[in-house]
Amino acid sequence: MTITTPDTHKTTPRSGAIDQLAIDTIRFLAADMVEEANSGHAGMPMGAAPMAWTLFSRHLAHNPADSAWADRDRFVLSAGHGSALQYALLHLFGYGLPLSELRRFRQLGSATPGHPELGHTDGVETTTGPLGQGLATAVGMALGERMNAARYPEITGHHTYAIVGDGCLMEGVSHEAASLAGHLGLGRLIVLFDDNDITIDGPAGQSCSDDQLMRFAAYGWHVARVDDGTDVDAIDAALTAAKAAERPSFIAIRTVIGHGAPGIEGTSKAHGAPLGATVLRAAKKNAGWGDQRFVVPAEVRERCAELAMAGARQQAAWTRRYDTFEHASPVRCAEWVRAQDRELPEHLEEILDGIETGIDRATRQTSQAVLAAVAAQMPELIGGSADLAGSTGTVTGQDAVSALDFAGSVIHFGIREFAMAAVLNGLSLHGGFRPYGSTFLVFSDYLRPALRLSALMRQPVVYILTHDSVAVGEDGPTHQPVEHIESLRLIPGVRVFRPADDHETIAAWRAALRHTSGPSVLILSRQTLPSLESADGTEPDFLTSTGARVVRQAEQPDIDIIATGSEVHLAVEAAVALHARGLVTRVISAPWRERFAENSGVFGRAPVVMSVEAGTTLGWQGLTGTNAIGIDEFGASGPGDEVLAHFGMSADNIVRRAVAAANAHHSAPHDNDQHPTEGNS
Amino acid sequence: MTITTPDTHKTTPRSGAIDQLAIDTIRFLAADMVEEANSGHAGMPMGAAPMAWTLFSRHLAHNPADSAWADRDRFVLSAGHGSALQYALLHLFGYGLPLSELRRFRQLGSATPGHPELGHTDGVETTTGPLGQGLATAVGMALGERMNAARYPEITGHHTYAIVGDGCLMEGVSHEAASLAGHLGLGRLIVLFDDNDITIDGPAGQSCSDDQLMRFAAYGWHVARVDDGTDVDAIDAALTAAKAAERPSFIAIRTVIGHGAPGIEGTSKAHGAPLGATVLRAAKKNAGWGDQRFVVPAEVRERCAELAMAGARQQAAWTRRYDTFEHASPVRCAEWVRAQDRELPEHLEEILDGIETGIDRATRQTSQAVLAAVAAQMPELIGGSADLAGSTGTVTGQDAVSALDFAGSVIHFGIREFAMAAVLNGLSLHGGFRPYGSTFLVFSDYLRPALRLSALMRQPVVYILTHDSVAVGEDGPTHQPVEHIESLRLIPGVRVFRPADDHETIAAWRAALRHTSGPSVLILSRQTLPSLESADGTEPDFLTSTGARVVRQAEQPDIDIIATGSEVHLAVEAAVALHARGLVTRVISAPWRERFAENSGVFGRAPVVMSVEAGTTLGWQGLTGTNAIGIDEFGASGPGDEVLAHFGMSADNIVRRAVAAANAHHSAPHDNDQHPTEGNS
């Protein structure tokens, strides 16, 4: 092989010539992409190209021909704005990403969106861009590897690599995730810090003085520094040492943002804009590069093809191990396959049907009964709580994982809601698991950015959010959700279930487990709720079919009350009182309100329609106008039943409002009898 | 003074007898409160009583007779679940908190809610409970002290103390806040870590292995350890050393949760429940305490009264300095008073009126013009960005603060959205400042928990949230808000303004600056928007009066289009096209939708009413039913105008939807002509 060494470039002596050529190819592919799009981030790829190339060419076990290989090493570009770096690598190594897509960088419908997006680009393991989350998701993947290795050691053993920037490390979620990784001793997690000392607003030193190595050492990580981020051999040696360490590894690699771009390298000007034709031309000239765009030297293409072949051989070796495993342990192997395919255990329906119903208890308690029963039969159902296991009902009777033993199914996430959710995403993305996590509903705010990514990535993570209203009581407004149920419904692709009793809680779990292409949220009560029989012979699948069921039937009702969760039994109580006053009232429980809204025609509609939910009314107004009973202010500290009554969450208040609405309706006979959302359509 | 030393208690020799008596008083007051309420957290107060007592009796400069003394030391109980500890102290030192209120712990309407709440209890500096935020808010207070000291050194010089628990330190926001405090060298911030090694779910070591001292050292803090958390003199010495340090201080104090409660001390059983009558009786017996509840020995009351008098003398000394200052520098003093009182500068209206209008530009750019003009005349208007100063338009021309100089008005928050918001709360609570912060709208998710506390505490923090729709373009769905505008509107007490042009942006800033009892959110565009004249001779105050203005008037309109922000000019364009088709169309810009919804009657209502906003439609359905045009799915990466058109944010699509709605209306003559929210009322 003939290597064309660029003659004018200050080559790093210790790097081989092919390495330098490949690195320059990556740099200029990335810079060309940004220039072509006239949008994007060229500086990060130019600085981080050597570490990324070293990783991909000397360490990463991957097979570009099969990006779904279960035991591949995972690579996460946590500094997702550097997407052009990842696209250049994926193209060079022969993933399904042609040069034509690199030319369409950041265009609508391209395989090269502005930030890496799962499902858009072959080889992208997770959506990144919201800073810090890539790192936390990588922790989840690394945990997934260890948990899978404990179950299937014959066919599991890979690394998880992440490249992070200053932004990732300043974000709080990096603390939560790194602390958890250190605690669990995730030795196969290796984080490369693109230490370029630049943020969008200027030198990183303008806002941060952390000693990152000391910080990660405090988390129990193996730490190392590479002073010259262009020194491929030094990076290589640091990676080799990191793989040998039994703890997670953090390697700070000093780089220059916009490396080689005259006049702007090493400054924040190189961060978030194209280099511009003049600078790019000068950078290419200095590197002995031609003026054309999207150049890939034949030697680089050849080298990458060799490396891809080596990756294919690695997978082939793994496949032989897999075949042996399948032959030796067909039952365990079938279990592994089932979990990988997100197929439910055959006996799931039996398990769910076997859970005792007709019991008055908190929906969090029914949820715990479901979780305990299912977890015992569904080893891929794993998860835990952000230090509220007892309160949220996630004590399943299964063992917890620890640094010494990953065979358990329970994860003590600690008081780290955000990292919990990102780790759940990582576990789900790793494959082989159906993860769940839990906290109080009010603290869903803390994990919201990761829940959004669950939805964007369509990962079937189950969120168990309990203590779902002001009924929390004494802990007061900081612990009482008001706006949270509605705010979760707003996130596209999130299924929000708020069951009213034990029947509906089981139905919600059934729906959540069957839903494999997006997150489900279970909104559960702290307080005991009565078990309510369906009045309409509802099928177990009512939740996914219509989202609702009639819990108090009425012929030609004067009033419909739609309620959710802990307010349904109040509505039933109110309906009985209204009946005594001559107002025929039907009660519909709508645990999945969005599905009900789409299907409300199935139920018909009484002249007066009201809703009751112990939270903000804004999202109900399309269904029930001003007849939405709820709580549009912050809660208060006091015994739960007193607080509920104080905020109008009582049968008495529902009766009062219903009578007023019925009177208003009768006094305005030409008023709207229509479904408001059908009003002007 | 006669000291009754409890004879059976294992007294710590180095603690004076009065100290021990006071500590036991605090412990049992707290335990009695929890017992009486049958709800709450007794373990934390029992373990942390010695450090709290040492702080209050030997270091805290405060005057219980005047909790509003501007130069008082601030005390933040970040581990807010230990509220009983704070209430016991406030009672003993003579704040306006009688024993009768301690007996009403956690009752509706009491001054002793479950977690400390600003405004409910004299002497409580901030609402705590959501873990980690107390620490971050304390950082803001400590920063406020430094910034105030740079402006008014004659009358400023106090410390900020916080007690934090394991939970606070595991939360990501603790990282962001501690890193920022270290960077800024906030030497008057002293954090006491109640190192009791217990979390709700069990031993802290179950989920965390951080070396906290090394971690805080990595942030540049002074760190120290006290091995015996009952050793008052050791705690005292550590506090003295911390005050001498020029860096923020972190003191880890080893304690025993539920100290002295037989059988449960040192376990998670002591965390979140009453001790129970038996255990409490035994604990009291061991301490030589009587069986009665709410006992305060006379010696303790006397000692606290002496200490309170000493605090009053400290304030008196400060008042003399203040008088000197007032005499020597009446103008500066008047400025200080004005800022303390949150009064606006006299010339604010002139400044706002002087900003050039009629310019087509991004609303973020108009906002920058406002900010630059106002900041130059309103020194208490301080703030900055989470590393997006240029993008969000918060470059004001003022200097930035640094560890070396706090005279500036700009804060480089770094990539720390959550801590930024909590620090803004702290700055506002400190007094003397009107703080603002900025980031992209999509990342409001990262700071949401602190924005909620801004609202709960009614702090006039201004949030500048830009890049407010899919028009963000190439950065793709991770950077494109969809659900965010509506989700912010859901939080009680948050004013969400989405101006359509330069006039409305100035109006939004005017409204935000005038609003002194709650947060305001400015939702601003990345892209250029045309300046739109009002069609109805709207007053500058339209935003706070009706929340909306008519930008295209029409006599007896067939259609009303209500729009916000960047969609208003599209609505105007559509109205022109509709007019050409014979459909008379009025366009209302509603930058404050909630205020408009309350006042929509002022505007009357066309037979067909539509809305346009580039975000989720759920919150609009109460106003416009199915005629809400918006985006109920995640965005996509591509040039902004293409992405907008792809998701139907175009005049053409509005015309198409309007024609369809008008046709549907005519074919259903008996259909609803009413305002849907008035439907059944």
What secondary-structure arrangement, pairings included, does this model have?
The structure is a homodimer of 681-residue chains.
Chain A: H1 17-37, H2 43-58, E1 74-77, H3 83-92, H4 99-103, H5 133-151, E2 160-164, H6 166-170, H7 172-184, E3 189-195, E4 198-199, E5 202-203, H8 212-218, E6 222-226, H9 232-244, E7 249-254, H10 277-286, H11 298-328, H12 330-340, H13 348-353, E8 361-362, H14 363-375, E9 381-385, H15 389-392, E10 410-412, H16 417-430, E11 434-440, H17 444-456, E12 462-466, H18 484-489, E13 495-497, H19 502-514, E14 520-523, E15 528-529, H20 542-545, E16 549-552, E17 559-563, H21 568-580, E18 585-589, H22 593-599, E19 608-612, H23 621-624, E20 628-629, H24 640-646, H25 651-667
Parallel strand pairs in A: 1-2, 2-3, 3-7, 6-7, 9-10, 9-11, 11-12, 12-14, 13-14, 17-18, 17-19, 19-20
Antiparallel strand pairs in A: 4-5, 8-15, 16-18
Helix pairs in contact in A: 1-2, 1-3, 2-3, 2-9, 5-7, 5-16, 7-16, 11-12, 14-19, 16-17, 21-25
Short description:
2 copies of one chain form a homodimer. With 681 residues, chain A is of the alpha/beta class.
Key attributes of the depicted protein:
homodimer, 681 residues, alpha/beta, Rossmann fold, 3 domains, six-stranded parallel beta sheet, 25 helices, disordered N terminus
